[in-house]
């Protein structure tokens, strides 16, 4: 049995996806959305956010020649800040386009049948839902259990990091997302991660890397950077902090809002106390396939376990540094992408070439100076 299939099977072969002409769907009225959602029936409801509800629907062109499965975010206009959130998302999506950011198909700004203000965003549908649903499934649901294994989670983490690197470093005007969390990472049919929900996003000043306009809301409980609680303006450092927490959550399986975290103990300190030697102990047990070692020749099993521990420790180390208390101690997202890609290359070499003594020398040279194994000291 090919070892690489253990962790790569969930990516699968690249399916050839039909390319839709989104211009066919650009004119969407309130009545069209109301009909498509069966008057916004709960049967079509897939999620509820801070400013509205999301429905999964099928839009059909007037000629009935094509149809498209979409997610429709209907804003609750009675909620304070909903109108600003709608405007912010529209403005953001006029300025961004990236393979790891969810695509917007069209918008609807109209009135409902009562004459009340109605606003909605129509997104490309992500068939595999959110990362939250995969890592923290609702107890008692009828859906079969789902899991994301080590390399798949790492791929998704890289997807999110690439999206943030694009927003921070490659947009004409830098953008800070301000609400990074598992539920805002959506997965397509190939389990590729897409960053969504730009309702709290802000454009940054190019001169000092902070938001030109201040917002009273900058994230969700457990993911909010500590400096925000002291009134600091939104910055890329805040996104990096949220990414660090998200990375630790992805690989420990622990929610940052878990009841076990109180007083001075939080997800950051929990992982830091276990770092470096106890990485396997705090890792989410669902990262690994049951009985995987039986497919590895005995003489390579010890090396396999040590390699996994080392790679997990590097991942946790990145999460620890990104979620540092001081903003200036955190990494740039471009640097994060480089380091995570090195870890992925090492793991791919391990699962694909464990019996051929492949050491991925170049990637190891990039990673080994990063952390001291004995003390955990970072070298940046």
From TrEMBL:
Its main location: membrane. InterPro entries: Kinase-like_dom_sf, LRR_receptor-like_kinase, Prot_kinase_dom, Protein_kinase_ATP_BS, Ser-Thr/Tyr_kinase_cat_dom, Ser/Thr_kinase_AS. GO terms for cellular component: plasma membrane. It is a single-pass membrane protein. It catalyses: L-seryl-[protein] + ATP = O-phospho-L-seryl-[protein] + ADP + H(+); L-threonyl-[protein] + ATP = O-phospho-L-threonyl-[protein] + ADP + H(+). Pfam families: PK_Tyr_Ser-Thr (PF07714). Belongs to the protein kinase superfamily. It is found in: Cell membrane. It comes from Rosa chinensis. Its EC number is 2.7.11.1. Keywords: ATP-binding, Cell membrane, Glycoprotein, Kinase, Leucine-rich repeat, Membrane, Nucleotide-binding, Phosphoprotein, Receptor, Repeat, Serine/threonine-protein kinase, Signal, Transferase, Transmembrane, Transmembrane helix. ATP binds at residue 73. This is non-specific serine/threonine protein kinase. The keyword Acetylation does not apply. One of its GO terms (molecular function) is protein serine/threonine kinase activity. Residues 40-347 form the Protein kinase domain. It comes from the Eukaryota.
């Amino acid at each position: 049995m090919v070892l690489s299939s253990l962790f790569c099977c969930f990516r699968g072969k690249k399916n050839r996806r039909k390319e839709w002409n989104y211009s066919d769907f650009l004119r969407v009225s309130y009545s069209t959305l109301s009909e498509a959602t069966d008057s916004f029936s709960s049967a079509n409801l897939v999620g509820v956010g801070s400013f509205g509800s999301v429905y999964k629907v099928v839009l059909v062109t007037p000629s009935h020649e094509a149809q498209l499965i979409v997610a429709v975010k209907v804003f609750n206009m009675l909620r304070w800040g909903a109108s600003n959130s709608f405007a912010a998302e529209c403005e953001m999506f006029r300025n961004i386009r990236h393979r790891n950011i969810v695509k917007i198909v069209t918008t609807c700004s109209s009135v409902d049948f009562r004459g009340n203000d109605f606003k909605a965003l129509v997104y490309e549908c992500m068939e595999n839902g959110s990362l939250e649903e995969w890592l923290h499934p609702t107890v008692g649901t009828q859906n079969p259990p789902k899991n994301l294994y080590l390399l798949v989670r790492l791929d998704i983490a890289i997807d999110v990091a690439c999206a943030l690197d694009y927003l921070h470093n490659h947009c004409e005007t830098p953008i800070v997302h301000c609400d990074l969390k598992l539920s805002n990472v959506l997965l397509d049919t190939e389990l590729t991660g897409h960053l969504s929900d730009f309702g709290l996003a802000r454009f940054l000043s190019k001169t000092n890397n902070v938001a030109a306009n201040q917002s009273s809301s900058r994230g969700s409980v457990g993911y909010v950077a500590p400096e925000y609680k002291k009134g600091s303006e939104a910055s890329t450092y805040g996104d990096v902090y949220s990414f660090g927490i998200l990375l630790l959550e992805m690989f420990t399986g622990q929610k940052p809002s878990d009841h076990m975290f109180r007083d001075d103990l939080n997800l950051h300190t929990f992982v830091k106390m276990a770092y470096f030697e106890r990485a396997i102990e705090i890792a989410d047990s669902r990262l690994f396939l049951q009985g995987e070692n039986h497919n590895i020749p005995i003489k390579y099993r010890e090396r396999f376990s040590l390699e996994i521990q080392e790679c997990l420790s590097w991942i946790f180390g990145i999460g620890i540094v990104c979620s540092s208390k001081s903003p200036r101690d955190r990494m740039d997202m471009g640097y994060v992408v480089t380091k995570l890609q090195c870890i992925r290359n090492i793991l791919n070499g391990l699962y694909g070439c464990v019996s051929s003594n492949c050491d991925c020398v170049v990637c190891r040279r990039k990673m080994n100076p990063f952390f001291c194994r004995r003390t955990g000291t970072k070298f940046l």
